[in-house]
Amino acid sequence: MTQDIFIFIAIGFGAQIIDGALGMAFGVITTSSLLAFGVPPVTASALTHVTEIFTTAASGTSHALHRNVDWRLVARLAPAGMIGGAIGAFTLANIDAGAIEPFVAIYLMGIGGYILFKAFRPLWPRDVRDRLIPVIGFGGGVLDAMGGGGWGPIVTTSLVGRGHEPKKVIGSTSLTEFLVTLTISITFVLAIGWTEIANAAGLIIGGVLAAPFGAILVKRIPVRPLMVGVALVIIVTSGMRLL
């Protein structure tokens, strides 16, 4: 049992370092790691979302303190993401959503490739007025709940790919993810019940300890390498999920 808790701490710490710095991949990395250690899929997804309540709160607070958050973007993302997350969690609790996984992975790999392409093109600051922000938030919430992760990859990559400033997108999506994850977790508890919250302790400890480091890293990494990192993380993680 002692050995297991340290494994969970390591998984939570590593996943949150990547998520805090790149604004994505905590759910995907955590769920995949738990499955690799023999945790059943339903339990792995539930553990991940319960843990993310704490890690996203810590990460979002850190980004806010480091002024990485665009509050107007949060106001447009949060309501749609929460509604989508509730619908996705309720749907997953009642049907098998495994059939959509390949399509989600293919979509994310395409977004990753697009961002990688844009990373090597000249970048000009511009004011983006994007009417699709609520739509992206809603879709990200649905797929995150149904796929055991994906809010960061779907929302962050989509917004960065559409021209929003990467650092503000990462901070804003990290903060918004707390509200979305809380909604998803509550929906799961109401729909199927939950009796294994104590098993998330190691993931929570590791994730919360790592959260401040991600917010520091995102302020120190230049925009172009940051975009390359985002693209590579999403391509690799989605490719592994597709396989």
Topology:
Layout lengths: L1 H21 L3 H11 L4 H25 L5 H22 L8 H19 L13 H15 L3 H11 L4 H27 L8 H20 L2 H20 L1
Summed up:
The chain has 243 residues and is mostly helical. 79% of the residues lie in helices and 0% in strands. The protein has ten helices and no strands.
Could you walk me through the main structural features you see in this protein, from its secondary elements to its overall organization?
The chain is an all-alpha fold and 243 residues long. The chain has one domain (2-242). 79% of the residues lie in helices and 0% in strands. It contains ten helices and no strands.
The beta-strand count equals 0
Briefly note the structural class of the backbone.
mainly alpha
On the 0-100 scale, what is the average pLDDT? 78
Order of helices and strands: HHHHHHHHHH
Number of helical runs? Answer: 10
Could you say which overall geometry the principal axes of the C-alpha atoms support? globular
- How many independent structural domains? 1
Largest sheet geometry: none
Helix content: over 70%
Low-confidence stretches: none
End-to-end distance, in Å? 31 Å
